[in-house]
Amino acid sequence: MDRILIRGGNVLRGDIHISGAKNAALPLMIAALLTDETLTLTNMPRLADVSLLRKILRNHGADTTLAGKRAGANPFAGDTVRIHAGEIADTTAPYELVSRMRASFWVLGPLLARCHQARVSLPGGCAIGTRPVDFYLKALKDLGADIGVEAGYVVARAKGGLHGARIVFPKVSVGATHVALMAATLARGETLIENAAREPEVTDVAHCLVKMGAKISGIGSSTLRIQGVERLRGATHPVLADRIETGTYAMAAAMTGGDVRLTGARCDTLDAVLPVMEEAGVSITREEGGLRVRGNGVIHPVSVETQPYPGFPTDLQAQLMALMTRADGVSTIRETIFENRFMHVQELARLGADIRLNGDTALVHGVDHLTGAPVMATDLRASVSLVIAALAAEGETELNRVYHLDRGFEALEKKLAAVGADIERVSG
Ligand code: EPZ
């Protein structure tokens, strides 16, 4: 199994190109199941989750192709993936595949809408929380589906197709919004989704669906109105820049007192994040086509609570905590989205961090210095928080279970090494 070795202390300077967002790329790929024409996605990130989802889509009968990069092209420029689901060969998404990536559960929406039936394995629990699927099932029932759970599979049928409905989510859910939105595009009549997720990734998918012929209004708001259409067509769509990758490298730069330009980043998707960094004493310059982050070596404590968009994202909570381990005071970080998303705390403590947990709140007492150590993490964002801490730690940190990072950060060690980090991947 690969490991990453980081020798801390180097100041990051230079440009990092931001990739397409994993959490937009995955539902965009799934949306390809809604049409028998080709969906072309550009600015696709090179990630293990994208490869796995291509495999899952092939299992349903979709052809997928990945266009290679041209010689001399920016090594971090996005890929182009074409997905053609001319016919759906199989409406079952098996446990072996869905259990490896939760988002693949979302095929339930398009399969049901297009084929009027689907059998999709329940995704099961995961490291960051129990993550139930009740909102998804209720929304699809509202749209007229008969839903049962048999032997670990959601079995959904909609004889004669789905029909429009009013769906009110009791709590904001990104995945349930994706699924309800995709299903509603092919339902008969009008659907209203209230308390919809407003995450930029949801908006990106909605814009792509409109290009495919869907009729959606209220995009970007918490109320989506969809007029069902009989069929959707092919389209070409660039994947939105990854706001979580952007925030992650911004915090890495700040952690080392560096000066880094994040090219291709979308500042408008980081309205709750950049002010927090500024409050921490980091200088942020919003530029055309990106942003520049300058740390001055002193980090001030902040008080933050994770919230659905436009609030502070749970997917940057671990990274912010890593940054605050070196603050000149006590920070308060409250996690309100997932009940078990503090798995990085114990590992950060191995590097010398002083973090005290009280239920859903972490009190982070800044320390003078961190020290390298062997660490491992249980999920993607937790892993990268350890990388941020390691960049400022004295000595060497060995990060194990690197496959978590490969799921969601394209060429992380190459991007960081290019701006001066002492970081290498060791295979085997
Ligand atoms: C998406 O997960 C993201 N995944 C997560 O990214 C992200 O952390 C999360 O949204 C929140 O922003 C992808 O986009 C692939 P939710 P999702 O449904 O859709 C509860 C990463 O590291 N809930 O918005 O699964 C749920 O338990 C990750 O890239 C129900 O109770 O999250 C949670 O408390 C991991 N019942 C809350 O809603 C349901 O039926 C929000 O979860 C559905 C959700």
Keywords:
428 residues, alpha/beta, UDP-n-acetylglucosamine1-carboxyvinyl-transferase, Chain, four-stranded mixed beta sheet, 14 helices, binds ligand EPZ
How many strand units?
26
Task: Enter the CATH topology name of the largest domain.
Answer: UDP-n-acetylglucosamine1-carboxyvinyl-transferase, Chain
Query: What does the average pLDDT come to?
Result: 96
Small molecules bound: ligand EPZ
Largest sheet: 4 strands, mixed
Q: What share of residues are in beta strands?
A: 25-35%
Task: State the helicity in percent bands.
Answer: 25-40%
At CATH's second level, what is the architecture of the largest domain? Alpha-beta prism
Overall structural domain count: 2
Task: Report strand order across the widest sheet.
Answer: 23-25-1-26
Distance between the termini: 5 Å
Shape: globular
Contiguous low-pLDDT stretches (5 residues minimum) are none
Rg, nearest Å: 21 Å
Describe this structure in words.
α5 (134-142) runs parallel beside α6 and α8 (243-255) packs parallel to α12 (380-391). The protein has helices at 22-31, 48-59, 95-98, 108-115, 134-142, 174-185, 200-211, 243-255, 274-279, 317-324, 344-350, 380-391, 403-408, 412-418, and strands at 3-7, 13-17, 38-44, 63-67, 79-84, 92-93, 117-121, 146-150, 153-157, 166-168, 190-194, 215-217, 223-227, 235-238, 259-263, 283-287, 290-294, 303-305, 330-334, 354-358, 361-365, 370-371, 374-376, 393-394, 396-400, 422-426. The model has no long low-confidence stretch (mean pLDDT 96). α6 (174-185) links the parallel β10 (166-168) and β11 (190-194). The strands form seven sheets. A four-stranded mixed β-sheet has the order 23-25-1-26. Strands 2-15-17-16 form a four-stranded mixed β-sheet. The chain folds into two domains: 3-18 and 241-426, Enolpyruvate transferase domain (UDP-n-acetylglucosamine1-carboxyvinyl-transferase, Chain), CATH 3.65.10.10; 22-238, Alpha-beta prism (UDP-n-acetylglucosamine1-carboxyvinyl-transferase, Chain). It has 428 residues and is α/β, with parallel strands linked by helices. The protein is globular. Helix content is 29%, strand content 27%. The protein contains 14 helices and 26 strands. Bound molecules: ligand EPZ.
